[in-house]
Amino acid sequence: MSDAVTDPPIEAQLERFRPELTGYCYRMLGSAFEAEDAVQETMIRAWRGHDSFEGRSSLRSWIYRIATNVCLNMVDSAQRRIRPMDLGPAGSGHATDPGAIHPEKIWVGPVPDERILPEGSDPANLIAERESIRLAFVAALQHLPSRQRAVLILREVLAWSAQEVADLLDTSVASVNSALQRARATLAAATPSAGDTYRPLDAEQRELLARYVKAFEAYDLRALTTLLHEDATLSMPPLALWLRGHDDISAWMSGTGSGCEGSRLIPVIANGLPAFGQYRASPTGDGHDPWALIVLEIADGRIAAVNNFLDTARLFPLFGLPSHLPPTDLP
């Protein structure tokens, strides 16, 4: 009887790359949904072409080449994804009209950590991975031309060598280094200060989030304000309106946004950041219905940005959040 080890089926070999490929495609495209489409297209092309894969490079390099080509085609045929802050100056918290509603395809959207971070990651590596999927970083990546974007992600995030990237992109090491230098300069100008990633073992961050949930569910705007930086922002894609500062955020929440009073929050993790599924009281009185995915950006122990993504019909299933919360005996 032969003792030879049989390689697993090609489908199984390809599938083990899905989380990291999804993370790569998400950074390239700025959308969790487009990233999943890109990865699925990559898997189909790899499965169809695996017989022609001759092992001149590793399977990982080969499938990344396919994914990169898929993403470059998608980037070049699409509008650059943005955040509300890219559309113009901050609005007024006293506004009764939230402004234009733009289609999902223009926004940088959130992504669940569990979709793109491999299980069992080393804690040190996990922090670095979370840094590279923060909303601000992914939004800044969208300012780069597509090939510069690929070079920077492969070199700076995935730690590929210049030669490996050159081989993948069919170019020279000098071209890769030049593209990386230009990308770094653009990114430095476009990326805000780093802020803090989600750290579940950090007692100070846990306390801040607990205070946020308590204040929000009680709709205690004074308590909420004490948790915000003075120049904190509030945004609500797909609405164009965004706000900056205590006064405007408080005015909005006590005025046009007052329907959020009585909400309940369920914690999740998005983009390496603490996040919550927000449910507003159902008009029928029968529990709570989805309203927003809230993604918080934290810096120096306070909340620097509150990002409310309102496309709950697609986002809540993506994050495994229930479609309705039944009534409870909680106050």
Automatic annotation (TrEMBL):
User: What would you give as a GO molecular function for this chain, any one?
Assistant: DNA binding
- Please provide the record's keywords in A-Z order: Sigma factor, Transcription, Transcription regulation
| Domain RNA polymerase sigma-70 region: from-to ranges | 15-81
Q: Which InterPro entries is this protein grouped with?
A: NTF2-like_dom_sf, RNA_pol_sigma-70-like, RNA_pol_sigma-70_dom, RNA_pol_sigma-G_actinobac, RNA_pol_sigma70_r2, RNA_pol_sigma70_r4_t2, RNA_pol_sigma_r2, RNA_pol_sigma_r3/r4-like
Q: Where is the RNA polymerase sigma factor 70 region 4 type domain?
A: 135-187
Q: Does the keyword Transcription apply?
A: yes
Tell me where on the tree of life, at the top rank, the source sits: Bacteria
Q: Which CDD domains match?
A: Sigma70_r4 (cd06171)
The UniProt record lists the SnoaL-like domain at 210-305
The answer to whether keyword Ribosomal protein applies is no
Q: Which GO terms describe its biological process?
A: DNA-templated transcription initiation
Recorded family membership: Belongs to the sigma-70 factor family. ECF subfamily.
Describe the subunit structure: Interacts transiently with the RNA polymerase catalytic core formed by RpoA, RpoB, RpoC and RpoZ (2 alpha, 1 beta, 1 beta' and 1 omega subunit) to form the RNA polymerase holoenzyme that can initiate transcription.
This chain belongs to the protein called RNA polymerase ECF family sigma subunit
Q: Which organism is it from?
A: Actinoplanes xinjiangensis
